[in-house]
Amino acid sequence: MIRKAQFVVSNTDPTKCPKPDRAEIAFIGRSNVGKSSLINMLTGVKELAKTSQKPGKTQLVNHFMIDDRWYLVDLPGYGFAKVSKDRKEKWEQMISEYLTSRENLCGVFVLIDSRLEPQTIDLEFLNWCGEEDVPFVVAFTKADKQSKSQTDKNVRAFLNKLEDIFGDIPDYFVTSAEKHAGKDQVLSFISELVSE
Ligand code: GTP
Ligand code: MG
């Protein structure tokens, strides 16, 4: 369980992130996939990370301090169709710089919408993470939005694609911010990562 969660700072420039003196866990995924909602669910603070029905709400690298012990980072989403080419390139530059140079980063949760069939943009992003040695795991979101069998089907299809790419299946979690599903599993995984 998380006892204390505090907002620290928002940045567009990854070099201005807080001093890397603690373990750090980041959350990323397609715009509107439910990153901020999952963060609020995990921390138990309803409006810690701003959520929105409109994609593209989170536009900065947002650091939160958890239990005075580790940093949690909410990142802006990728794949939002309505952004300009210029903004998209800026996003790619900021995120790739952050993910490849942040020395205290020990885990990145890549969020995947459990309602959808495998999306090329997610697979491409995960492929890039693999190439760059970004330490990622997968969290499927919004599992409450459809039947369990439909969720299982979409999750399985996605995992099959990952197996094709990587030769094995990475760690993954099935979550619902609405129903608090997957909370204990994700938190105990994080707790192990940050105490290594
Ligand atoms: P950006 O910051 O815009 O990239 O979006 P985000 O990935 O942070 O998504 P956000 O948490 O803002 O959620 C987007 C929408 O999905 C909101 O309307 C949420 O209420 C809804 N949502 C997120 N998670 C869940 C979930 O587990 N179940 C249900 N039913 N809705 C969810
Ligand atoms: Mg967000």
TrEMBL record:
Keyword Cell division attributed: yes
Entry keyword Nucleotide-binding: yes
InterPro entries associated with the record: G_ENGB_dom (IPR030393), GTP-bd (IPR006073), GTP-bd_ribosome_bio_YsxC (IPR019987), P-loop_NTPase (IPR027417), Small_GTP-bd (IPR005225)
Membrane-spanning segments: none
SUPFAM superfamilies according to UniProt: P-loop containing nucleoside triphosphate hydrolases (SSF52540)
Domain of life: Bacteria
Keywords noted in UniProt: Cell cycle, Cell division, GTP-binding, Magnesium, Metal-binding, Nucleotide-binding, Septation
Cofactor(s) essential for the protein: Mg(2+)
Occurrences of domain EngB-type G (ranges): 21-196
Protein role: Necessary for normal cell division and for the maintenance of normal septation.
Family from the record: Belongs to the TRAFAC class TrmE-Era-EngA-EngB-Septin-like GTPase superfamily. EngB GTPase family.
Name of the protein described by the UniProt record: Probable GTP-binding protein EngB
